[in-house]
Amino acid sequence: MTSASPTTTIPEPTGRYRRTGQRGVNAEMLSWLFMRGSGLLLVILVFGHLFVNLWLGEGVKRIDFAFVAGKWSSPFWQVWDLLMLWLGLLHGGNGVRTIINDYAHGPRLRLVLKGLLYLAVIITVVLGTLVIFTFDPCPSGGDPSLLPSICR
């Protein structure tokens, strides 16, 4: 008795490739697009930050507490630094998330590492945002000997 062997067909090399997976927008594609957009915006923000802080005026010699206090008295620079903080942390966190997905073997380890990553990003974003918007170089009721010279 002979059995018929199954035949395998190989598609024509000039034939059109057909996708078998999900089509359209998904989380990983949005993540990929965010990385490109945030990376471009971060380059502009960081080089603008470096240009204003280091290139203009006296350079690094003029950066001190009074410089930061004067800069953060302007809502423009508060928003600029806030965008750098948020985009930098979200961009970096998304990159580390991708590394965890690639190299952490096992769902439990992956879950723990991502949980720690998300917690660290959230805490840092919240604390950084609070520092930017609640920064007061001359708090009322502060000890005058501890206040900077710009407050006298």
From TrEMBL:
InterPro entries, per database record: SQR/QFR_C/D, SuccDH_FuR_B_TM-su
Compartments where found: Membrane
Record's keyword terms, sorted: Heme, Iron, Membrane, Metal-binding, Transmembrane, Transmembrane helix
Transmembrane parts of this sequence: 33-56, 76-96, 116-135
Cross-referenced Gene3D superfamilies: Fumarate reductase/succinate dehydrogenase, transmembrane subunit
UniProt protein name: Succinate dehydrogenase hydrophobic membrane anchor subunit
Pfam families: Sdh_cyt
Annotated organism of origin: Brachybacterium huguangmaarense
Keyword Oxidoreductase: no
Lineage: Bacteria, Bacillati, Actinomycetota, Actinomycetes, Micrococcales
SUPFAM superfamilies noted in UniProt: Fumarate reductase respiratory complex transmembrane subunits
